[in-house]
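Thread: Newbie trying to understand structure tokens

Hi all, I'm a second-year student working on a class project, and my supervisor (Dr. K.) asked me to get a predicted structure for one chain before our next meeting. I've only ever worked with sequences, so writing a 3D structure as a token string is new to me. If someone could post the tokens and maybe explain what I'm looking at, I'd be very grateful. Here's the chain:
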Amino acid sequence: MNLKTELHQLNNRLEKARRKLNAAHERGDMAMIEKFMDEVQALTKKIDSTKTTVDRQLSKKGADIAKMAFKRPLTKEEQADQGALKKKVRGLVVVHPMTALGKEMGLTEMTGFAHKKF
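---
Reply by user tm_fold:
Sure, no problem. This is what the structure looks like when written as tokens:
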């Protein structure tokens, strides 16, 4: 399963458990309160673990891309016709600054990374 999908499902389960916990508090049902407290703690721990894995993978991908021999910001014309640019420059990786990868790398403009100069 995709980590992003798994994280989304875990967050949904956590929200459901929190709603049930609040309902148990309103009823004063101590057995259910304990059950849902344990479930909330377990889900929170699993979510933190999954987020750490996602961050680690993103950092690794950013480091691999940053190791490429050549990088430069893309012009507006190149951004408009990326298909032709990618055909011309094999192995080109384009990173947008608003994506998670772009934010991780600290980019301020759309940048192309490649093994050879383009």
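A couple of things are worth pointing out once you decode it. The chain has a mean pLDDT of 95. The chain is about 70% helix and 10% strand. Feel free to ask follow-ups in this thread.
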